[in-house]
Structures are given as structure tokens and as C-alpha cells.
Amino acid sequence: QVPTQLSDYRPYPFALTETRLDVTLAAEASSILAELDFSRRAPGALVLDIGKAVDLRRLAIDGAELDAAQWRRDGEILRIDAPAEGSFTLSSEVVVNPSANTAFEGLYLSGGIFCTQCEAEGFRHITPYPDRPDVMAPFRVTLRADLPVLLSNGNPVSAGDGVAVWHDPWPKPAYLFALVAGDLRAVSGQFTTASGRDVALNVWVRPGDESRADYALESLIRSMEWDEKVYGREYDLDLFNIVAVDDFNMGAMENKGLNIFNSKLVLASPDTATDADYERIEGVIAHEYFHNWTGNRITCRDWFQLCLKEGLTVFRDQQFTADMRSAAVKRIEDVLTLRARQFREDQGPLAHPVRPDSYVEINNFYTATVYEKGAEVIGMLKLLVGDEGYDKALGLYFDRHDGDAATIEDWLKVFEDATGRDLSQFKRWYTDAGTPVVTMTEDWQDGHLTLRFAQSTPPTPGQDDKPPRVIPIAVGLISPNGDEVVPTTVLEMTEAEQEFSFDGLAARPVVSALRGFSAPVMLDRQMDATTRAFLLSHDTDPFARWEAGRQLARETLLAMLRGESPGAEYLDAIGQLLADEAADPAFLALCLRLPSEEEIATVQAQGGTTPDPDAIHAAREALATEIARRHEAALEAVYARMEVSAPYRPDADQSGRRSLRLAALALLNRIDGGRRAAALFAEAGNMTERAGALGLMIQAGDAQQALSEFHREFSGVRLVIDKWFMLQPLHAEPDQAVAVAQHLAARDDFDWKNPNRFRALIGGLTANHAGFHAADGTGYDFLADWLLKMDAVNPQIAARMSAAFESWTRYDADRRKHAEAALDRILSAPALSRNLGEMIGRIRN
Ligand code: B3K
Ligand code: ZN
């Protein structure tokens, strides 16, 4: 496994002025004729990428067939003797087998529909090509198949009689190529851009699914409006197509003018999708649409720059959701995900910088660090240069780099040029891995408050030395009577240790720090429970309010794990929250949710304690039961008050009420034997409440009948059956979780080659912390078995799911021994893919 290094980047010696493809689709043998117009820019060989399974039939330059001496195929590389100067056309003819493509990379079949996935390096499995993002060309594509719908990128040129011609005038890298062909139905709409271009919009689904595509279409229209209004970005073709397919390795793909989506992120109806599904659909439709500017018009020079498009596009979709729904709730949800996935990544063997400098398999770097931390870094940049500076810099970015394959250096340069700020220290956020720990202490004397901060970042693989970074720390001061005496101020920390002072204060204030989670750091500060409870009720910053409650809950759980009983401050604070009828229900629901078992394990491990998954599980259960006993009446009142009687809408208001209602039910469920959950399951008319109730019934240990009923009712709806596969291992008692997963895996309808089904079952188990980390190692064995089985079929999915092992070293010696054996068994398997091999190799180290 030879890694690719950022420092090895060399420009391609040829320009590609046009790409013409002529594709004849057939399930087992599709033929692809390609004509590539090259013109030489520098000396060097003509090197193309070519997938192993591509059957190369013919190569010609300017019509003259190449003989065996003029080219060489070596692994995934094709070297061709090319003219020493000038322009020429390279033609190739290949045959590929879409029906044998179970890795879902390149051209494949999903439920009878031909489709493609080319990012990052899938195009080489379709035709020999310079498969790198800095080689961009306009595409002209002819598709031939006796199928009703034939789609590719760009604008349609002609269609009929089983032939369709497409032209995409915008030069694009190969990873943005797509084609789709099959029996599909469109749910259509229309959008007129600010400058008056009429754009036809289609969401393509399988016949019968049309009634579940409206929300995706509405979300697309909202995204187009928002990007014009907030970023001044218009769409640039006459047509925008979205296609839903059932077999898809990730969420969705931003191919130019032809986004391809996992059907999970398109199809929704109140009876089959939850509020969370709707919110995700809206967010991902927006994300892929926003890529049209941040990713497609301006793309990445090489894959090391992935965060250039992903971090920025995540940041944009987060802003969008904040505008469509509640900004406070969205921020808290994003921080929860960041901590659960990215902080975890940063603390383990898979830690890497937002811009990595080496990889073996690029698909292993579509990570929480590149995406979510990449977005946090942009949030910090915006905070540091201000909203106006940010707008100026983005304007300059679009002007200066439209049509480019750009780098992080280009990105930082527009901020420097637009604002005059030196960002050399800030750049460490891109190049250095790890989560900084910031400690804060206070000193109070005669109306004078000093805040002292110290930052340090633990070493990460390959990076021992961590110089200080720029950290924007947003703080506010609150007087003891609850008034805000100093509104949010951003302190810029640049040194390893630094202090900031506030004068003229009448009384010692309570410090609200890291407001809005102004930097992706861990804030370490001593605070007693009373002060945390004070902030939970008085802080004006909703994130900081929630955070105070979260810390209180964490500390309560940690104390219980040391054998203490839960303190009154936390339990009383919950009582106050429940009584607050004016608060936003979605916000309250987040405050009622206890920290996850995984989160507690992480905190313990950081503090040098070996986490005991069973003890953590027991403590969390005990705390929930205690809260339910203490506040039964208040919880019942909330449960009754939050019932929604209006017809179902997936908006922020209704979904907030449902989430608070379910949060109250989750607590009541501990003491009512599952009675209320069963009643809700029977009467609810929407999937949010039905799936929520079903999960709680499983927890209560009485769900067999409900599970059968649910399966019968939805047996034809794949996405709902995925939920059925996920909920059971997720909510099973820890000592039964592995057995439940084994039992489900043996079923006929465990169609494991479908990524959604595989992720549902395997991901359900690995998200059950104490279940997956069963002391006897059966959870690890189960995962290892399935990773090996999946690796032979779909390496990307196997590699992605293997990250469940990433924190194995934090547990006790017996568990470590079991995990080590499972990891070694994977490593010693013959024919391990590059994907899984790299992941397990890094995890095992
Ligand atoms: N750019 C794609 C992800 C491609 C993943 C390749 N393994 C979707 C997105 O981030 O928008
Ligand atoms: Zn993206």
C-alpha cells in the first residue's frame, strides 16, 4: 500500500478540450467509446487511469490504431505514446459489466436502473481517462438503450428512439460525470433564476414512488432561492435533475445537473419518514445543490483539498437549515454530531488533519474531520473576519476562482486579500490534526475580572508537536441577578497561554464561555453544579444554556459511576425545564436527552479512567428512572401538552413538539412498563411517533407483536424495513444485542448487499455501546465477520463501517484482547481491499 502524498502533486501535462462519450448500455456488457481532445502543455507521458475490470478493446490516436508497442497497461495505469507537441484525439473502446459491479463505483445497476458513481475515482471504471479533479472538460454524451429515460449531465441536445444526446458546456472533472437510464417517473417543477433563466426541475423515482417525492422537490426550490438570496449564486443550466436509487454507497452525489441520491434522502411521506428524515432530506438536497458553485464551478485541485468543497458546502447547508428552521436547535444538533463523530475520530488512531497530506485510499477520507470540522473551521473564519469580511471574501472567491481547480491556499488568500488579515497561524486548523483542550480559570478582584486560558493539543498519528492555534472564544458575562452585563465578545486566543480582562464590574459575574460553540475545542473549566444550573436557566446564548445542562448531566453520570447518587441541582433543573411552558419545545427536548453512553465513555477515557460499558449503561438507565420517578406528573403534563392535533407537517414547529413529546415518553417509559409507548404505537398516524414508540417498546422488553405488525404493514417499503432492522439491535438489552443482530442477519430479507440494509443492522448494533462492546467479544467478532464478507463485495462500505473499531484501545484488557484478535483476523485475510486494509491497519496500530 503506497500512500499518495500531497507534496507529490504535479500538473497534468495535457489540456483536455473536449470529452465525447458514446455509451451503449446493456446489463452484462456495456460498451463505451470515448474521444478525448488533448493538447500538449508540457513534456511528459500520456498517463491515463483505468479500472482493473475494464475490458480495453481498441486505442487510436487521430484515427490511427495503436499497436501493442505504443501503449502499456500496468495495474490501474495506462501509458500511451503521445505526440511530442500539438493537439490530437485519443479514441478508446471498452466493455464493462454493470451487473457484476457490486462495489457501486463506476457504472452499475440498482433495481434495474443503470446509474453511476464517480467520486472520487470511479470514472476510471467506465473509460480510460485522466481521472483527477484538475483535468476539466466540456462533455458531449450519447446514450443508447431501449429504455424510457436516458439522462446525463448538462442540457439535452436530442432524444428519441433509444438514443439521447447530452451536452454539458461547463468544463468539469470526471468525478462529476453521471448517467442514468431506466424506467423512471418524474415529479417536476420549475424555477426562474434572478436573471430570468427558466430551469426545469425533475425528481426521478421508480414508478409508484411519485407521491413520496414532493418534499425533495420543494426542498430543491428553497435551496435555489436561498443560494441566490444569501450567496448571490444562480443556477447555470436549463435543467436540474435529481434521481433516487436504492443502492448507493453514501447519501448523495452532486454530479453536474444530475444529482444522484440514495432513495433514503429523497422519498418521504408522513407514514414512512420521520421528522429527522425530512430534515435530513431538506439538508442534503440543499448540500448537493450548493455544490453547484462550491465544488462544481470551483472544484478541488487534488483530493487533498477535499475540505475546500466539503467543509464549505456543509457550512452552507448548516446556514440554510438554520434559516429554514431554528438556528439554536440546529447549532446544538451540529455540535452533538461533531462531538460524537469528529472528536472521537480526532482522539483515536484515525485522527487526520482537515486537509490530510497523505492517503492510501481517498474514499477513506470522506470523514467527519473533512466535512464537519471543515465546516467548523469556516465558522471560525467568519467569526474572526466578521460577516462583512466573510461576504467580501466569498465574493472574491467566486470571482477569482470560477472555473478553477483550487486549493486551501487559494481559499485563505481570498480572505487575506479581502480583509487584510494574516491567516498563516489560522492555517494550522487545516494542517494540524487533533482537538485542542482549552482550560479556563478566573480571577476576581475589586471589579476586575481576569480570564486565563491555556491551550494544548494532544499528539495525533504522525504529528507530535502541536503549536498554538488561533482560537476565537466567544464569552459573555452575566450578573448574579441574571442580567447580561457584558454581551457576547469574541476573544482571540493566539498564544499557548493568554489572559483577558474586564473592568468596572459592580459584582462578580458568571462567565458564559464558548458561546455558540465558537471553536471546535474542549473547554475545561471547573464549575460547581449550582453555577451550571444558574447558566442553564439564565444564559442568553442558547447553545451555552444547553451546554450548561449537558455538563450537569455528564457530571451527574460520572458521579453515579463513582458510586454517588444524582445531585439535587440536576434533578431540580430538569423540573424547572419541564415547567417552562414558554421555551421552544425542540430546545427542551435536546435538554432532556441524556448524554449518550459513548459520550460518557469518551469523557472517562480522557480523564484516564477505563470505561466500563455495562456500568455506564446501568448508570444512565438509573438516572433516567430517577428523573421519571421524580418528575412523573410534569412529564405526563408535557406529554399531553405536546400532542399535535393538526394534520402532519414536517416543519420545525411540529417536529419540535413531537421530539419533546417523545423525549418525555422516553423517560416515562422507564416506569410505566412500556404502556404509553404501546398506546402511541397503536394510535399514531406518522412514522416519527410510530418508530419512536417502537424503539421504546423494544427497550421496555415487550415488542414482539408490535415488531411483527410493523414488518407486515411495511413489508414492501424498503426504507421502513431498514428502520425495523436498525431499531432492534440498537434498543436491545446489551446482553442480547449481539444475539438479536445474529438472528436478524440470518433472515432472508437481510439483503446485505444493499448498503442501507447493511448499515441499518450493523450500524444499529455498533451504536448500542454496551451491546457492541460485549465483554465476551462477540460484538467484535460479529462485526469482523461481516466486514470481511462485505469487503469482497463492496470495499467502501466495509471500510466505512470498520470505524466502529476506532476506540478499541480505551477499554479493559479483556475487551482489548478480543478486539485485537478480531482486527488481526481481518488483517490476515487474503485479498483484503485497499480500503479496508488501510482502515484496519491504522486502527490496529
Ligand atoms: N461528494 C459526495 C461524496 C462522495 C463520496 C465518495 N466516496 C457527496 C457530498 O459530499 O456531497
Ligand atoms: Zn458534499
From TrEMBL:
Stored InterPro entries: Aminopeptidase_N-like_N, Aminopeptidase_N-like_N_sf, PepN_Ig-like_sf, Peptidase_M1, Peptidase_M1_dom, Peptidase_M1_pepN, Peptidase_M1_pepN_C, Peptidase_M1_pepN_C_sf
Reactions accelerated catalytically: Release of an N-terminal amino acid, Xaa-|-Yaa- from a peptide, amide or arylamide. Xaa is preferably Ala, but may be most amino acids including Pro (slow action). When a terminal hydrophobic residue is followed by a prolyl residue, the two may be released as an intact Xaa-Pro dipeptide
EC number: 3.4.11.2
Keywords from the UniProt entry: Aminopeptidase, Hydrolase, Metal-binding, Metalloprotease, Protease, Zinc
Gene Ontology annotations of biological process type: proteolysis
Domain Peptidase M1 alanyl aminopeptidase C-terminal intervals: 531-843
CDD domains xref list: M1_APN
Peptidase M1 membrane alanine aminopeptidase domain: residues covered: 215-429
One Pfam family per UniProt: DUF3458
Aminopeptidase N-like N-terminal domain: residues covered: 56-176
Stated family: Belongs to the peptidase M1 family.
Protein name: Aminopeptidase N
